[in-house]
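Message: Study each token:
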Amino acid sequence: MAVYQSGHIVSITSVSESFPHGQYLSYAVIEYDRNIACKTLVPELFYVAHRTITAVYTNTEPKKTDHSIDGPFVILELSLQDADAPMLFDENEEGRVPRNSPPPIAAGMPSAAPDSHAVCAENRLEITQCGKITACDGTILPPVRERIATCKSHNLIADDFMQFTFEDISYNLFVPAEYSEVKTYPMVLFIPDASVLGTDPLLALYQGNGALSFASSRDQALHASFVLAPVFPSSYKLKSDDGLQKATKLIDKLIRLIDYISGQYAIDQKRIYATGQSFGCIALCALNICYPKRIAASILVAGQWDALEMSSLSNKELWFITSDGDARAYPSMNAIISEMEKKGASVNRNIWNAKDSSEKLSSYAKAAAEDNCNIHYTIFENNSVVPDKEEINPISNHVNTWPAAYAIDEIRDWLFTITL
């Protein structure tokens, strides 16, 4: 077993996890060459550069646990409030701003930093063992004074995606763990917001929970599926008033990409689903209008499109989600629903408080999904999507609708009940 020259440390791994507002570098795993006595550990025995240690304990496996057990792995949990915690930053001429607050660019919304662009952070830590540590066999492990950089990194769920390019776009693809060519599988297309337009495919994964929630162990156990998450160069940016003609370049590219992946894997063409937020929602409105027989069902989060054009989808299976504090998406979705009802759509309207418990929100969504309606319209009321210490305004309502929508398991489950 190899160890660092200056001590009993075998390896150090930095780990990021998916949270509703994005991917965060949330803990480190220090592997020792023997079992460590957990009861002797305190945070002050370690130092992590530019980070705050919130908990320290041992485990027999290199991962977090609610029940520590003596083992060779020391887990250092890190504060998500640290400036260096997010794996996504907004960069401009003045430097980098961590993406632990609303993104500065949202399609159709004012921009706080129009010249900024999203960049992915490096998953890396520098750690010092400051004090003596007691092993289970009684050995005292002396301090390791120098900073040791992590030698491995894991980005949970995100690392399960593969990255590719197709023509001039980059994309992420999740393949079910037990994929077999003798079966067919559904596929979920996720399109993120305009704040992550660019060429790095990881932007679509680190920005929030839209793609990663469908690739979680929970979702894959219930309905194994492919997850496709493309990113687009800024030349593809689309606004709701651009019209279908300008949208053609983007949506035709999406159809070619879907067809290409369908040629590589056994994708069930009757179970291709789509979801998107803001710019992604706008793109999917256009996609559904132009190719109504390609997408079985869609979750449309905080976006807008021409209501009369959207009324052509009155017989489709769609779930619209917005906040009543979103100055653009809310009135647009109201108009869309009104026009759809005129065309005979069966609409299930529901108004929820996003701050209700996850159990309550799950029960609301389950009841809505079981309603015999093809159009669902969920409104988060009274600025409830906005975190308590965040300023309430149309932008904060807009961007905080995204994580609130994808955090509700039963809304995601609803997609898989629909077949063309």
The chain has nine helices and 22 strands. The radius of gyration is 23 Å. Residues 21 and 208 are 5 Å apart (CA to CA).
